[in-house]
């Protein structure tokens, strides 16, 4: 009897996990573009066009709200003066003057450039976070948290894959 109970619990647990994962994908992890039905952006492309413009990894982050592995982006070590821009539409997003080392594994900034990003509530993973996306193409960039340095107290935790860097005097 104990063996059949154990088997039942394993099957029930696996079924619950699979169902929960499917529900999360259907309802909790919909890309920002799908959640904001009717939202139009200055730069828009079909999925096929985005696949041609972006690498697979960039597409996963920008268009499917994926997250790169921590400490995997070369932009973590970028300390030159310059501008970080959206990898999807090339809109300037952050000045290197606002970049700081957050020790989180992702490029972090305390302030975006004026009018560069927009935010919305992201309730995936059973928590409420503020998702940051490019205001021009809607690409997912990362999240903003309230544990950053002065003067804003904010930490824009960005995926390096979602951005490009251009060195220049700022």
Automatic annotation (TrEMBL):
<dbReference type="InterPro" id="IPR006311">
    <property type="entry name" value="TAT_signal"/>
</dbReference>
<dbReference type="GO" id="GO:0033743">
    <property type="term" value="F:peptide-methionine (R)-S-oxide reductase activity"/>
</dbReference>
<dbReference type="InterPro" id="IPR028427">
    <property type="entry name" value="Met_Sox_Rdtase_MsrB"/>
</dbReference>
<dbReference type="Pfam" id="PF01641">
    <property type="entry name" value="SelR"/>
</dbReference>
<dbReference type="InterPro" id="IPR002579">
    <property type="entry name" value="Met_Sox_Rdtase_MsrB_dom"/>
</dbReference>
<keyword id="KW-0560">Oxidoreductase</keyword>
<dbReference type="InterPro" id="IPR011057">
    <property type="entry name" value="Mss4-like_sf"/>
</dbReference>
<protein>
    <recommendedName>
        <fullName>peptide-methionine (R)-S-oxide reductase</fullName>
        <ecNumber>1.8.4.12</ecNumber>
    </recommendedName>
</protein>
<feature type="domain" description="MsrB">
    <location>
        <begin position="47"/>
        <end position="168"/>
    </location>
</feature>
């Amino acid at each position: 009897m104990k063996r059949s109970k154990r088997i039942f619990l394993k099957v029930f647990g696996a079924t619950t996990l699979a169902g929960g994962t499917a529900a999360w994908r259907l309802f909790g992890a919909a890309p920002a573009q799908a959640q904001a039905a009717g939202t139009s952006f200055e730069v828009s492309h079909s999925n096929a066009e985005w696949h041609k413009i972006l690498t697979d990894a960039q597409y996963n982050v920008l268009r499917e709200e994926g997250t790169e592995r921590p400490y995997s982006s070369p932009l973590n070590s970028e300390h030159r003066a310059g501008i970080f821009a959206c990898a999807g539409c090339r809109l300037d997003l952050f000045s290197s003057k606002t970049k700081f080392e957050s020790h989180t594994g992702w490029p972090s900034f305390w302030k975006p450039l004026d009018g560069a990003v927009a935010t919305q509530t992201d309730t995936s993973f059973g928590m409420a976070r503020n998702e940051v996306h490019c205001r021009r193409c809607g690409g997912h960039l990362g999240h903003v948290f309230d544990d950053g340095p002065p003067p804003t107290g904010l930490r824009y935790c960005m995926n390096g894959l979602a951005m490009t860097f251009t060195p220049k005097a700022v």
